[in-house]
Amino acid sequence: MELFGLKSGNKRKAFILWSLIVLILAGVSSLSVWKKHQTLFPKIDENLTVTDGLGVSIHLGVTEKDIQLIADSGVKWARIDILWSQVETNKGEYDFKNTGYDELNGLLNKYHIRPYYILDYSNQLYEQKKSIVTEQGRDAFGKYVKVTVERYKDQGAIWEIWNEPNHPRLWDPQPNYEDYALLVKEVSPIIRKYDRSGTIVAPALASINEDALDWLQKVLEQGILNYIDVISVHPYQSNNPENVMKEYDELKKLIGRYTDKDIPIVSGEWGYSMAHTPVQKPITEMQHAEYLTRSFLINAKEGIPISIWYDWKNDGTDINNREHNFGIVSYYSNPKIAYLSLQTLTKQLEGYRFSKELSLFSNPNDYVLEFVNEDNKKIIVFWTSESSHNIEFSLKTGEGQIISMLGAVQHAEWKDKINVNSSSSPSYLVIK
Q1: Taking the CA of residue 134 as centre, how many other CA atoms within 13 Å lie in the half-sphere pointing to its CB?
Q2: What pairing do the DSSP bridges indicate for beta strands 417-422 and 389-394?
């Protein structure tokens, strides 16, 4: 028998040849897409520049004005929940349009803000409590994850599996080590399959104090590090941001006991409320700005590639309500001092990476950090967690500018060493 002038034996050979060609082309195409993703969306690790890793937490209801202000601040990420119970109100039906998620995703793309999406919480269509503890629940959550990830793929998004599962208000009942680990193992392959540009992070650990690390250890014992790319934590502090360094040390040691791989750590949520409450000493608007700046700088020093500030915007107007007073901008989207300090940081450190800490030896509460860009230009950022005082450190003879936390500029010259006033507000020494 002949077909298109080919005998049957030759036809089979031609079919096999064309099949191989199609497979090769498909492989080349997949490799090309993968390389494109690697170029557009750099790997989340210590090689990110400082500003490429900064972001803010937002909530549904933010306006285009908010997103534009976020972009103008210089940050590159926005973190938000995609709430399962809102998206799926009838079994098997998913609504991203009327819930506002499609519009938000479009705005993030328009202003070049990368999405940090949290896949959470429970859904009473499948589970009785705010948790996922049944096979039915895990299967349904996996389907919601598949639909969500397919819809918002190819953006270099971060996909976070739940938010603060070690918090009893956000996962009930506790303890939940096995159930949470089962959920991660269920949905991680789904994310991996449907969004090759994405990064899988977990568990968005509430705090990194001793109790939180005990919980994390139990989850790591379940083997979740084989299913995620990055560990995410919420390292809230009650006072000076610099206190977080000791907690990071303990966290890194713990992770090291369960893997030889270099697992990055991201700060997925951290902020300070300005509320007047009986349990918290209120901070001023200037202190709020200082803590924001110092938190981002300390995270850069500690090799934390992503730092998300909580919150972008005040959730209300009650000065005595803690949740109403975390924002960088007011409830009406008016910038606070922290917004200006953030703009100054992103403008000065755009394209820079942390290089080293300059040792002063005289005072452990003084911080002098060197940042370097690809042209080997240097910026030295200095501050203290104590009251203002002068510091002196060696520096090759030169000149430059000292820029305050809020952007004031003064000329500086020095010979072999420089003497500057260090305060709780970080300053930037830009070397010419």
Answers
A1: 12
A2: antiparallel
User: What are the pLDDT digits (tens) for 203-241?
Assistant: 999 999 999 999 999 999 999 999 999 999 999 999 999
Short-list 279, 243, 256, CA closest to 270: 243
Write down the residue that tokens 């929940």 correspond to: 81
Using alpha carbons, list the distances in angstroms from residue 357 to 279, 300, 369.
35, 11, 4
Burial class (CB in 10 A: 0-12, 13-18, 19+), 28: exposed
Structural contact between residues 383 and 425, judged by C-beta atoms closer than 8 angstroms? yes
- Band (pLDDT 50/70/90 cuts) for residue 245 is very high
Identify which of 139, 405, 137 has the alpha carbon closest to the alpha carbon of residue 290. Answer: 405
Q: Which residues, other chains included, contact 252 with Cβ-Cβ below 8 Å and sequence gap of 6+?
A: 265
Of the two residues 298 and 23, the one the predictor is more confident about is: 298
Residues 36/28, Cβ–Cβ less than 8 Å: no
Of 146, 147, 148, 228, which is closest to residue 180 (Cα–Cα)? 228
> Angle at Cα 406 formed by Cα 71 and Cα 235, nearest 5°?
65
Give the model's pLDDT for residue 391. 95
